[in-house]
Structure formats: structure tokens, C-alpha cells
Specification:
Layout lengths: L8 H8 L3 H28 L4 H18 L7 E2 L5 H32 L11 H18 L1 H5 L10 H10 L6 H20 L5 H16 L6 H4 L17 H33 L5 H17 L6 E2 L1 H9 L6 H16 L9 H16 L1 H8 L3 H16 L2 H26 L11 H4 L9 E7 L7 H10 L6 E8 L5 H16 L3 E5 L3 H9 L10 E3 L2 H14 L1
Helix pairs in contact: 2-3, 2-9, 2-13, 2-14, 2-15, 3-12, 3-14, 4-11, 4-12, 5-15, 5-16, 5-17, 5-18, 8-9, 8-15, 11-12, 11-13, 17-18, 20-21
């Protein structure tokens, strides 16, 4: 354990030297992200069972602290869709004060997790589990917005998935066609702008257009002003919620769920950011930063917060250089709260429902979901069970059952692998070729040997190894002869490895791959015909192929 592991990235970047040009780039990126985050924060606040101003307060306070104290160089924090289900249930059961207590406790749990160096534990969450619960949350978010999108007259919408849809179908005759028109129009503008002008702030443009239409034409639709007439303006003063042992005990399970989700999504977002920006985050410091941010959000009456993958990606594409960009994003949102929050009253609820439909679609990761359906029955079972339990039962139960089932299935696979390999025990011993694998390595070629099952617990090590390579090789050889097993998370890691290599201008060669890993890669459409990987039967052939590629480059 070193001090560097617990140093916020902001301090690191400032020590490297911070120029006017860097500040200009960060300010532009921060403004761009703020424009994206503005309608999103309001929509997530409403979807969570709170008010739009709570979402904005969260984006300002938590967004600033996550960037200032976190372990990622370009992470953007704030309210996210992952919390919607949990927050809604906590408010329904324990009131808003109960949510604030749960958020404070979650912040303390995250700080403790960072101090105990649990940041690397994310790699032990199997890929089918992550995809399953993320897709499940997406379905829940989308289904929760049907009432506002259609303008249905329903006094009380059930929280459970099936009763909720029964209520929707029971009230289908009460559709407000003007509201539906606003919702469809908003959704169409967002989709059209994503295709024709992807760099434009589609969410904001669509919300402004729909708000102007409602205000100028005096359309009879539900708006933020009519739904929340007593909504407070400005930034509240910090204060502690009312504590009691009974309340703490009641919300503690929810606090652990919030902390778990915040940690998972923050670290996933940081990994995505590393892949896009070529950086390397400090996972333990990121958890500490997230913990402090949730403490700060709760003190100002905000919602739970974490790293936001889509907003982080926008930040990187907009040219962000340092954590200052995230702090600037929070500052720009604060200016809106202080000087323009009255404009929120004109935003139609159907427009925010359209935004949340798009958020749900983005969260669904349908391409990964479909790709996992092509995997063996074991991975498919973990995916579908986690997805089903998330939608129909409970998120915490879904994750626990998913991880437990994935672990049991992994042990069963390993038992099969040991039985198959019993006759070739010498295969696992390093021979002379292994001991001297770098002796005949051509210039511009790197080689790594993977030894043992390549499963969800070690898949992240491959990406870490690639990031540690100081130079930019032309060819990367992965020696797979000693890999008896490859699971869905390993396939995902290999896909990301190949993509990052492609971005850096390198080709990837797999040598000596065995039947089970090869079959998994074929299922993922990474076989010989894909053109994304080069396969050789042994290391000698890999060296010949690598030398030819370097020669032709």
C-alpha cells in the first residue's frame, strides 16, 4: 500500500503542471457535460420519486466532490439510473429523511471499502451478472415512465412490475393524446439529432423545444411546475437528517445496496474512461471519493451518486484533460440552479419521460445482452436469472443469486476441465520454449502468456497488463496453450483487449488456443473468419506471423 494509491487524481494532475490551455479544454468539456447533465439530472430526480431540484443538487455537490477527490482523471459523477429503483423504494418505505440517512451510511461504507482496499473486488463480478442487472434496471426505468409518456389518469402506480403494467392496461382508455404527441415529438428529436448531429446536446434541445411548444401554445399537459408547485429554488444549506437507532437499523440494508451499486458503477465507469482516454484510475481512492461525495450530497438534501458512464464518455470526447472538467461541470450546473431554476416549471413531464426512455435504452446494453445469449447455457442462465430477478424481485437478491450461481457453475466447469486434462498433466509445466519466450522476439512485438482458466476473476488483469506496456507494439502475441477454460467475462476482456490494440495500431495473435476457449470465441464472432484475431497453432508460427506483420508495416 502506497500513498499514491490514496492520492486524488486532481492533486496528481496539478503537480504535473496545469496550463491555461488545459483549463480552456476542461472548461469547454465541463460546459458540454453540464448541458447534457441538466435535463438528465432533473429526469432522474423525478424518476427516483423525489423532485427535479434534488437531482440537480446531487449533480452539483456530488459531481464536484467526485472529480475533486476521486481516483479517476476524467470521471463525471452525479445521479444515475442504477439508483432509481432503490431510491424509489427507500422513499416509499422510510420517507425522504430515511433516504438521506441511507445515503450518509452508504458514504461511510464506501470510504471504509476504499480504506480496506476493496476497489479491485469489482473484477469478481461476472460479466453476465453485470449485464443482467443493468438490463433489468433499464426495463424498470422504462416501464416507470409509461404513465407520464402517455398521460394516463392513474391515481396510484404500483411499484411492482407486473401490477404496474396491469394498472397501465386498465387505464389505457385515458391516454392524453396531446401528452403523447409531446412525448413522441421529444423522443423523435433526440433520436434524429443522435443520428444527424451526434455532437449536439440532443436532450437539452428536445426539452427546450417541447417546453416552448407547451408554453406558447398553452397545451393542456402536465409539467414540472404543475406536478411540483412547491419546489424549492437555489442551493439549500447543509444539514443533518434526524437520526435514531431504529431508523439506522431500518435503512442499513438499503445503505449497503446503495454503496454496492455506487462502487460497481463508479469503477465500471472508471474502467471505461481508462480505455477511452488511455489513463489508469486508482480504484481505492475512487471509492473514497465516491463515499465523501455521497456524504456531501446527503448533507445538502441530495440523492445517492456515482460515476456516470455516458457523461464520463461525453467528457472525454469533449476534450477533458483533468478532473477540473468535472468540477467545472458542477459549477455550470450551480449557475443554472442559482439564476435559471424558474425555467424548470415549463418542462413537460412527457419530455422527461422521453429522456428516461433513452437512458433506459442506453443502459440496456442490448448488443452485449444478445451476444451473451449466444454463450453456453451456463452463462445464459446467469444472465437471464439475474435479469429476471432484478425486474420481478429485487436488485440485491438478483446480484447475490447471480454471483453465487456463476461461482457454482465455474467450479463445475473447472471440474470438467481437470477431468479432461488428466492425461496431459505435463502440459502445465513450463518448458524451454516458455522460459525463453522473449529471446527471439522481433522488434515491435510483445508477448504475454496466460496460464490457467481465464474467467471473471482474472479477466481484468489482461487489460491492466496492456495498459502497463510502455511502448506501442505493432503485434501482441497471447499464448493460450495453458488456458483450459474461457468464460463470458474472459471473452469480454479479450474483445476489449483487441479493440484497444486496434486503436493503438497493433494486431493480436493467439497461439496454441485449446478447443473450449476457441469455441467460446467463435460464439462471440471472434473466430478465424472475423479478421479481428490471428490464430496460430503454436508459438513458433506466431513469431513468424508477427515478423511478417512488422515487416509489412
Amino acid at each position: 500500500m502506497t500513498a499514491a494509491s490514496y492520492t486524488p487524481k486532481l492533486l496528481t494532475t496539478l503537480r504535473e503542471g496545469y496550463s491555461v490551455a488545459s483549463f480552456r479544454a476542461d472548461a469547454i468539456a465541463g460546459l458540454t457535460v453540464a448541458i447534457v447533465a441538466l435535463p438528465l439530472a432533473m429526469a432522474l430526480g423525478i424518476a427516483s420519486g423525489a423532485t427535479p431540484d434534488k437531482g440537480l443538487v446531487t449533480a452539483v455537490i456530488a459531481g464536484f466532490l467526485i472529480s475533486a477527490l476521486g481516483g479517476s482523471r476524467v470521471q463525471i459523477g452525479g445521479p444515475t439510473g442504477a439508483f432509481v429503483v432503490v431510491i424509489f423504494n427507500v422513499i416509499a418505505q422510510h420517507g425522504y429523511d430515511g433516504l438521506l440517512v441511507a445515503t450518509l451510511l452508504a458514504g461511510l461504507i464506501l470510504i471504509a471499502a476504499g480504506a480496506l482496499r476493496l476497489g479491485r473486488m469489482i473484477k469478481y463480478i461476472p460479466h453476465p451478472v453485470v449485464t443482467g442487472f443493468t438490463a433489468g434496471i433499464a426495463v424498470i426505468i422504462g416501464s416507470s415512465q409509461v404513465k407520464d409518456f402517455l398521460g394516463l389518469s392513474i391515481e396510484h402506480v404500483p411499484a411492482e412490475f407486473i401490477p404496474r403494467w396491469q394498472a397501465y392496461f386498465g387505464a389505457i382508455a385515458t391516454v392524453n393524446w396531446v401528452t403523447l404527441g409531446i412525448g413522441v415529438g421529444t423522443l423523435s428529436v433526440i433520436v434524429m439529432l443522435r443520428k444527424l448531429a451526434p455532437k449536439w446536446p440532443g436532450f437539452l434541445i428536445a426539452v427546450v423545444a417541447s417546453s416552448l411548444a407547451v408554453a406558447l401554445l398553452k397545451l393542456p399537459v402536465d409539467t414540472i411546475g404543475s406536478r411540483f408547485p412547491d419546489m424549492s429554488a437555489g442551493l439549500p444549506m447543509p444539514s443533518l437528517p434526524e437520526f435514531s437507532l431504529a431508523k439506522v437499523a431500518a435503512v442499513l440494508p438499503s445503505a449497503f445496496t446503495i454503496a454496492f451499486l455506487a462502487g460497481i458503477e463508479a469503477l465500471l465507469s472508471a474502467v471505461v474512461a481508462d480505455g477511452m482516454a488511455g489513463t489508469r484510475h486508482r480504484s481505492d481512492q475512487e471509492l473514497i471519493g465516491q463515499g465523501v461525495a455521497n456524504l456531501g450530497s446527503a448533507l445538502f438534501g441530495g440523492l445517492p451518486a456515482t460515476g456516470a458512464i455516458a457523461r464520463t464518455a461525453t467528457n472525454i470526447r469533449s476534450g477533458a484533460k483533468t478532473p477540473v472538467a468535472g468540477m467545472m461541470h458542477a459549477a455550470f450546473l450551480l449557475l443554472f440552479i442559482l439564476f435559471a431554476s424558474d425555467l424548470m416549471a415549463y418542462v413537460p413531464m412527457a419530455a422527461l419521460a422521453a429522456i428516461l426512455f433513452m437512458v433506459a435504452w442506453g443502459m440496456s446494453e442490448y448488443k452485449r445482452f444478445v451476444a451473451l445469449l449466444r454463450m453456453p447455457n451456463s452463462d445464459r442462465a446467469v444472465l437471464l436469472l439475474t435479469f429476471g430477478l432484478t425486474v420481478l424481485v429485487d436488485l440485491t437478491v438478483a446480484i447475490g443469486v447471480g454471483v453465487a450461481l456463476a461461482s457454482l457453475l465455474f467450479m463445475a466447469r473447472m471440474a470438467e476441465a481437470v477431468e479432461v486434462d488428466a492425461g496431459i498433466a505435463q502440459e502445465s509445466e513450463l518448458d524451454a520454449e516458455d522460459m525463453h519466450q522473449r529471446d527471439a522476439l522481433p522488434r515491435g512485438v510483445e508477448v504475454f502468456r496466460i496460464n490457467g482458466p481465464f474467467f471473471f476473476g482474472v479477466a481484468g488483469e489482461l487489460l491492466d497488463t496492456l495498459r502497463r506496456v510502455g511502448s506501442s507494439p505493432k503485434v501482441l502475441i497471447l499464448r493460450m496453450r495453458l488456458v483450459p477454460l474461457l468464460d463470458a467475462s474472459g471473452v469480454q476482456a479479450l474483445e476489449e483487449f483487441v479493440e484497444q490494440a486496434r486503436i493503438s495500431g497493433a494486431r493480436v495473435i493467439l497461439s496454441g488456443i485449446r478447443p473450449q476457449p476457441f469455441a467460446m470465441l467463435k460464439r462471440a464472432r471472434l473466430g478465424r473468419s472475423s479478421g479481428k484475431l490471428i490464430y496460430t497453432s503454436n508459438y513458433a508460427e506466431a513469431l513468424i506471423a508477427a515478423a511478417k506483420i512488422v515487416e509489412e508495416a
